[in-house]
Specification:
By secondary structure, the chain is α+β, with helices and mostly antiparallel strands. The protein has helices at 59-80, 146-158; strands spanning 9-10, 16-20, 23-28, 31-36, 42-46, 49-53, 83-90, 95-99, 102-106, 113-115, 122-127, 135-143, 169-172. It has a four-stranded antiparallel sheet with strand order 11-12-7-13, with helices on one face. Strands 1-6-5 form a three-stranded antiparallel sheet, with helices on one face. The longest helix has 22 residues, at 59-80. The relative contact order is 0.15.
C-alpha cells in the first residue's frame, strides 16, 4: 500500500466534511473548499476520520492513492488553519500597496501592476526593513486553498523575478538568490 495513502486523515474540530461519491466538501472557520476526485478512489468518512482505498495495485492507482489522501489533508488544514506565502519586494523605487482588495506593484516599469485577488485569497502589505538587504515591502498572500495561494504568489513573483547581480525583484521570504559578480573593469 501507499505509505501516505494508507494513513487515515483526522478531521480537526470545527470542520464539517461531506463525502458524496467522488466529491468531497469541507467547511471550517477559514472558508469552504470542494473538490472532485478520481472515481476509482474510494473515499470513506467514519469516526472523525477520512480514509482512502484503491481498487488495485496498478502503478496509476498507487499514485492516485497517495495524491488523493494528500489533497484531502491539504483541504482540511486549509479550512482550519489556512495557508500563506510571504514575498519580499527588494529594490530601490520598488513598492507594493493595497488599493481596496487589490495589490498594486511598482516594479520599475512605466506603469503600476494591479493584481486582483481570486475569491478566497487575501493580500497584506507591510513596510520592509529586514536585516542585510533593502526590503522595500513585504507581501503576504493567504487563503484556505494551498494550490491557489501558491499560484497567486508565483504570479506576483513572475512580474519581476529576482536578478542575480543586485538581487532586485520579488522573491519568496525563504528564497536564496545566488549572486554573481559584476564586470571586473579595465585594468591597465
Amino acid at each position: 500500500m501507499s505509505r501516505i495513502g494508507k494513513l487515515p486523515v483526522q478531521i480537526p474540530s470545527g470542520v464539517k466534511v461531506s463525502v458524496e461519491g467522488d466529491r468531497v466538501s469541507v467547511s471550517g472557520p477559514k472558508g469552504t473548499l470542494e473538490r472532485v476526485f478520481h472515481p476509482d478512489m474510494a473515499i470513506k468518512l467514519a469516526d472523525g476520520q477520512i480514509s482512502v482505498a484503491r481498487p488495485s495495485d496498478e502503478k496509476r492507482h498507487k499514485a492516485l492513492h497517495g495524491l488523493t489522501r494528500a489533497l484531502i489533508n491539504n483541504m482540511l488544514i486549509g479550512v482550519s488553519q489556512g495557508y500563506k506565502k510571504v514575498l519580499d519586494v527588494v529594490g530601490v523605487g520598488y513598492r507594493a500597496s493595497l488599493r481596496g482588495e487589490n495589490l498594486v506593484l511598482q516594479l520599475g516599469q512605466s506603469h503600476g501592476v494591479e493584481v486582483v485577488p481570486p475569491p478566497g485569497i487575501k493580500f497584506e502589505v507591510a513596510a520592509g526593513g529586514r536585516g542585510d538587504r533593502e526590503v522595500a515591502a513585504t507581501i503576504t498572500v493567504s487563503g484556505p486553498d494551498k494550490e491557489m495561494v501558491g499560484q497567486v504568489a508565483a504570479s506576483i513573483r513572475g512580474w519581476r523575478p529576482p536578478e542575480p547581480y543586485k538581487g532586485k525583484g520579488v522573491r519568496y521570504r525563504d528564497e536564496y538568490v545566488r549572486r554573481k559578480a559584476g564586470k571586473a573593469g579595465k585594468v591597465g
